[in-house]
Amino acid sequence: MPDGTQKKPSRIQKRNRRKILDAALDVFSQNGYRGATLDQIAAEAGLSKPNILYYFQGKEDIHVTLLSQLMETWLDPLVELDPDGDPQTEILDYVQRKLDMARDLPRESRLFAGEILQGAPRMAPNLETALKPLFDEKCAVISSWIDAGKIAPLDPQHLIFSIWAATQHYADFAAQVSVLVGADTDSHHRASVHLSTMFGKMLRP
Amino acid sequence: MPDGTQKKPSRIQKRNRRKILDAALDVFSQNGYRGATLDQIAAEAGLSKPNILYYFQGKEDIHVTLLSQLMETWLDPLVELDPDGDPQTEILDYVQRKLDMARDLPRESRLFAGEILQGAPRMAPNLETALKPLFDEKCAVISSWIDAGKIAPLDPQHLIFSIWAATQHYADFAAQVSVLVGADTDSHHRASVHLSTMFGKMLRP
DNA sequence: TCGTGGATTTACCAAATGGTAAAAATTCAT
DNA sequence: ATGAATTTTTACCATTTGGTAAATCCACGA
Q1: Which pLDDT score, from 0 to 100, does residue A7 have?
Q2: Interface touch B30/A118, C-beta < 8 Å
């Protein structure tokens, strides 16, 4: 029994759990939690459904595992916001990292968005324990930069919301963006320039 | 048979169709298309499931009806962006209208977001025919304002994306926002001030 | 008031779906 | 090689879910 609080996972266990989680990321991010089926995940992973249930306790277990693994990756750019760096550079670099993530990890962005959109039924605890402390900490950093006159006086909380919204939009609303920008050769670059300009002007004291 | 291309709907038909659509908006926006069940919608509407299917051809019919009705409301603020008004005022008013909509119509915002998030499977045609022409038209308006030196030179397409993202964030990610801002007495007002400041600075030539 | 057409309920169904038991196959240390 | 442990498959099951047929109810105009 690979589930539960057991010892070291075998090589084959690691491989299959990874295959399942990758397939599940595809399926969950495309169809949402309830829209995804174990059969789809199984087919995508190249395994049988009972075989999947040999590695995970159930559908919800897969989803929760995916979400908690994701949280780490997701918060990483914010963790790297350095209180001792140059405020403007730090924030603009943060915007850039988030935009890159929207391009490179769109499935993860959509999985996260879908979960929040439905009221975070399986992630609320994680938000409180992992996200909120980090959020508060970085808001304090931004406040100190404002107090020191290094950047314009903006509401730190809502500034961060604006950064999240503007960057994740390109992953979460990709279907809409692609219809509206048409066959753009380098949409990512234009978005990058726009966000730099926008937040750059905004931050100047 | 009330469905199909029939004559004038009776008063009772209007009432029940409205009840169903309102219930469906609740259920679809909370659980997504596949997560929503006809039984839930029926219960919420206070009708039996077969009775619902007397008024609509099926689950998808309800969803599509909801989406196409929504499109009108959704585009309205953008329609009102006046090419002959003061550019700064026009755009800031647009931001305000969108933010008000996120507060007043969160269900609609989430329904829309969920549909786009999953690749707009039931709305792609609508996006092409209804949204894209309006989007292109208003991008041209913004371009003309930039050419006239009335506002800062920003990419019109991405400026609109930023406005959509920043405002809709408060409806679509409400679960996250409420965890992070805690018991704020007037979160909407703070968001409003922030967005005015932000886009105000950004637009100044 | 009575009949007719629209509205509603009752009783279903077939397919999909999450999940399980147990047999079969495979891996692996000895 | 061989027996034990792990992994995978086969054959199911109970529930949920979108949908239907037909009987029943009810509003309303003549």
Answers
A1: 52
A2: yes
User: Is residue B187 within a helix (H) or strand (E), and if so which, with residue range?
Assistant: helix B187-203
Chain Cα centroid distance, residue A133? 17
Distance CA A44, CA A24 (A): 8
What's the CA gap between B170 and B176, in Å, rounded?
9
Residue type, A3: D
**Rounded distance between C-alpha atoms, residue B94 and residue B112, angstroms:** 19
Query: Is domain A64-203 given the CATH code 1.10.357.10 in the classification?
Result: yes
- Optimal mutation site among B128, B157, B199, interface A, most CBs of chain A within 10 A: B157
CA distances to A175, B98, B174 from B104, rounded to whole Å, are 25, 10, 13
Instruction: Flag if B131 and A179 touch (Cβ within 8 Å).
Output: yes
Q: Of 3.40.50.720, 1.10.10.60, 1.20.1050.10, 1.10.3720.10, which CATH number belongs to A9-56?
A: 1.10.10.60
Q: How far, CA to CA in Å, does B100 sit from each of A109, A117, B77, B107? A: 26, 19, 10, 13
Give tens-digit pLDDT for B150-201.
999 999 999 999 999 999 999 999 999 999 998 788 999 999 999 999 999 9
Q: Which residues touch strand D (CB under 7 A)?
A: A 2, 10, 12-13, 16, 47-51, 54; B 36-39, 49-50, 53, 58-60
Contacts A172 to B, Cβ<8 Å:
113, 116-117
Q: How many CB pairs under 8 A join A and B?
A: 164
Tens-place pLDDT, residues B46-85: 999 999 999 999 999 999 999 999 999 999 999 999 999 9
In whole angstroms, give the CA distance from residue A123 to residue A115.
7
Q: Rounded to an integer, what distance in angstroms lies between the CA atom of residue A52 and that of residue A19? A: 10
8 Å CB contact between B205 and B145: no
Q: ipTM of the assembly?
A: 0.93
Q: Which residue is nearest to nucleotide C16 (CA to C1')?
A: A37
Q: Can you tell me the distance from the alpha carbon of B97 to that of A33, in angstroms, rounded to the nearest whole number? A: 32
Domain boundaries, chain A: 9-56, 64-203
pLDDT at A108 over 50: yes
Q: What is the DSSP track for A101-139?
A: HHHH-HHHHHHHHHHHHTT-TTTHHHIIIIIHHHHHHHH
* pTM metric for this prediction: 0.94
